[in-house]
Design a protein that fits this description.
alpha/beta; Nitrilase/N-carbamoyl-D-aminoacid amidohydrolase; six-stranded mixed sheet; 16 strands; C-N_Hydrolase; N-carbamoylputrescine amidase activity; Hydratase; hydrolase; C-N_Hydrolase_sf
Length: about 280
């Protein structure tokens, strides 16, 4: 059944543990989780960053071996076929090759096939050794579910990411991510990533769905704690725990964003900006 534009639907943030270099195994795990979420009525699935390849690259030859075109690569084609079969929309982080360049990318597909891609703008740590910075800007895609934007991991540390997407009319931002421990994080404190994305959702009036990975890969631990945030900045599901695979599910309603942005009788967090003084 085709959703009515602007109506409520379920979104899932799929937290799982990819295995480095095991593309077929990772795609099979992604499929199993997507099918499980679909059985619970989910229409939009969000998977982690570099979900098909794993994250901790050591050589450029590994990147070349594990990358594919977007669209047209094996991982994109697999997910697009699955979306068509199930009648769902999928956002996943993937390792992309385009000409002589490699990108830490994400793609969006739906029941009618590939919709669009995104390339990570802000590269983290050793990613700078293997990937080119994103060159597609911050696109927003019209879908029957609503207006969808994408960001990847460290992009979420920059307020401009979500402000730009909100200005372009995004209603939900899907964030494939591989969050790692932050330096000097106090024991027991909420993950900085969670704080940043809740603040971004509130200050822009956006739904934000963050799908992190778990496990340790080549000595690098990942922190889990995926979450789905409403446009008021409060979590709708999650944070998940730090170590377990889990499917977070929440109902989102893009038609309610305008009302959520009105945080008092006289204030709207999107309309109140003083563009005349911001440089």
């Amino acid at each position: 059944m085709t959703p009515v534009p602007g109506s409520a639907f379920k979104v899932a943030a799929i937290q799982f543990e990819p295995e480095f270099g095991a593309v077929d195994r990772n795609l099979a795990a992604m499929e199993a989780h997507i099918r499980a979420a679909h059985a619970q009525g989910v229409r939009l699935m969000v998977l982690p960053e570099l979900a098909d390849s794993g994250y901790v690259f050591e050589t450029q030859s590994e990147v070349a071996r594990l990358s594919g075109p977007i669209p047209g690569g094996p991982s994109t084609d697999f997910l697009c076929s699955l979306a068509a079969e199930l009648g769902v929309w999928i956002v996943s982080g993937l390792c992309e090759v385009a000409g002589d360049a490699f990108y830490n990318s994400a793609m969006l597909c739906g029941p009618d096939g590939f919709i669009g891609g995104y390339r990570k703008l802000h590269l983290w740590n050793r990613e700078t050794l293997f990937f080119a910075p994103g060159d597609l800007g911050l696109p927003v895609f019209d879908t029957p579910l609503g207006r969808i934007g994408m960001a990847i991991c460290y992009d979420g540390w920059f307020p401009e990411t979500f402000r730009t997407l909100a200005d372009k009319g995004a209603q939900i931002v899907c964030v494939p991510t591989n969050w790692v421990p932050m330096p000097d994080q106090p024991e027991g404190a909420e993950a900085m990533a969670n704080t940043l994305h809740k603040a971004a959702a509130h200050s822009n009036g956006l739904y934000i769905a963050c799908a992190d990975r778990v496990g340790t890969e080549r000595g690098q631990p990942f922190i889990g704690q995926s979450l789905i945030v409403g446009p008021n900045g409060f979590a709708l599901d999650g944070p998940a725990d730090k170590t377990s695979e889990r499917i977070l599910i929440a109902e989102v309603d893009p038609s309610g964003i305008a009302a959520a942005r009105k945080i008092s009788e006289y204030n709207d967090v999107h309309a109140d900006r003083r563009r005349d003084v911001y440089s």
